[in-house]
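pls design
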């Protein structure tokens, strides 16, 4: 019996919606292989499978695959109306985003301001089979830091306004893009000048990044895109470090599709070299392992020892898998500060941590509440901040103290997430 037939039989006997979904969306399957997989689930299993796809934010992509199978193999699409409506909604939102993107990119081009498409706005047209196959919430572009003032003026002329305080004269090391630029009826626009906040423990040479840029057509405009290796590394950082592996399957699928599309073009030695210069070896190695393990991504085996000679422990990889793919929803919310506070036994230490979260730097408060940092209103905002913390996290602290059901599970998952996040940059502390 061939390995593929055995996989189909095993799947039918031991149905698991997540495992089946991972099999269905992995890039590179032939139509026959995909049809063999899609033919196995019964009606009840398809219901669970589609619910899982919605939870993982890949339902539009799954529907795209099923549409192709309907045309090529006559597959009857399960819960077609449900999937079709979501697909149409995604298509409508993305068409609007691409329309707005075309206007913005054309305006930047006419102003002589170089720009590159990032994340979803690039992936929609360049990597995904249709613009309706991936959801997207905002428009991300990369511009040069010296062009920020001109970009702000341009965006305001197009009717966009920043959603909070921003001043080019501030240090701004803890942010990587202008405040979201908002316009009624349009998705938010985030104009980045770098890929990662400068106060994070990574070193991204933005000038070298621009030198490696490639030509790309986005929203009918000839602009730029990240070099393939930079694109992969940026998506790895975005999923695994910036978002603590909390984005689910869709963001992992983004990278898998990039790796599949550009499989003949990726220079793996170059990717490793850039990852080393960025200090992103662990982020990259862990993300690639997840891609290899769960979406069958073809990663040259020599890449791993080049990134991490010591390897990745299987227990840590399993923790990362659970953080990424087990989409549990908890009523209790644990931030890193709340974890530290809950773990600290001393009263004065708890008070110190609490005060630090209330009395944030003036610039941070300015951005949170859209008030200039030298405004007399800042003093009153510390009270507003205190009320916010009590309203959003006080209940969790009380539940933790009382040992309420479910709160410890939420705390443990947040603790693992925080531990993984620290592990990703541990080499920096060791050097």
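designed seq:
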């Amino acid at each position: 019996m061939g390995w593929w037939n055995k996989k189909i039989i095993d799947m039918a006997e031991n149905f698991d919606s997540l495992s089946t979904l991972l099999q269905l969306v992995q890039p590179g399957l032939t139509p026959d292989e995909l049809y063999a997989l899609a033919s196995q689930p019964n009606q009840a299993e398809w219901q669970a499978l589609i619910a899982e796809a919605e939870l993982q934010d890949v339902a539009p992509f799954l529907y795209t695959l099923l549409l192709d199978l309907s045309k090529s193999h006559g597959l009857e699409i399960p819960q077609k109306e449900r999937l079709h409506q979501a697909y149409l909604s995604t298509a409508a939102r993305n068409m609007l985003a691409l329309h707005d993107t075309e206007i913005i990119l054309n305006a930047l081009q006419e102003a002589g301001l170089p720009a590159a498409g990032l994340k979803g706005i690039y992936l929609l047209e360049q990597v995904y089979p249709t613009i309706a196959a991936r959801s997207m919430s905002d428009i991300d572009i990369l511009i040069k830091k010296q062009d920020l003032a001109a970009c702000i003026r341009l965006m305001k002329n197009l009717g966009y306004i920043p959603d909070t305080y921003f001043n080019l004269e501030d240090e701004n090391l803890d942010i990587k893009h202008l405040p979201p630029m908002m316009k009624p009826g349009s998705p938010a626009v985030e104009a980045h000048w770098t890929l990662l906040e400068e106060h994070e423990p990574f070193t991204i040479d933005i000038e070298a990044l621009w030198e490696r840029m490639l030509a790309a057509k986005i929203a009918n405009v000839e602009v730029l895109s990240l070099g393939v290796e930079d694109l992969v590394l940026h998506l790895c950082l975005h999923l695994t470090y910036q978002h603590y592996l909390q984005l689910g399957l869709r963001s992992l699928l983004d990278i898998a599709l990039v790796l599949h599309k550009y499989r003949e073009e990726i220079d793996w030695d170059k990717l490793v070299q850039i990852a080393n210069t960025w200090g992103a070896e662990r982020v990259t190695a862990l993300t690639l392992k997840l891609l290899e393990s769960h979406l069958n991504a073809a990663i040259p085996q020599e890449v791993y020892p080049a990134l991490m000679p010591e390897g990745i422990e299987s227990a840590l990889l399993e923790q990362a898998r659970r953080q990424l793919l087990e989409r549990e929803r908890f009523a209790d919310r644990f931030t890193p500060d709340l974890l530290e506070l809950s773990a600290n036994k001393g009263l004065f230490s708890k008070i110190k941590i609490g005060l630090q979260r209330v009395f944030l730097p003036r610039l941070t408060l300015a951005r949170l509440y859209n008030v200039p940092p030298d405004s007399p209103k800042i003093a009153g905002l510390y009270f507003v901040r205190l009320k916010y913390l009590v309203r959003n996290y006080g209940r969790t602290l009380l539940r933790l103290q009382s040992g309420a059901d479910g709160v410890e599970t939420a705390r443990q998952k947040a603790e693992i997430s925080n531990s993984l996040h620290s592990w990703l940059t541990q080499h920096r502390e060791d050097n």
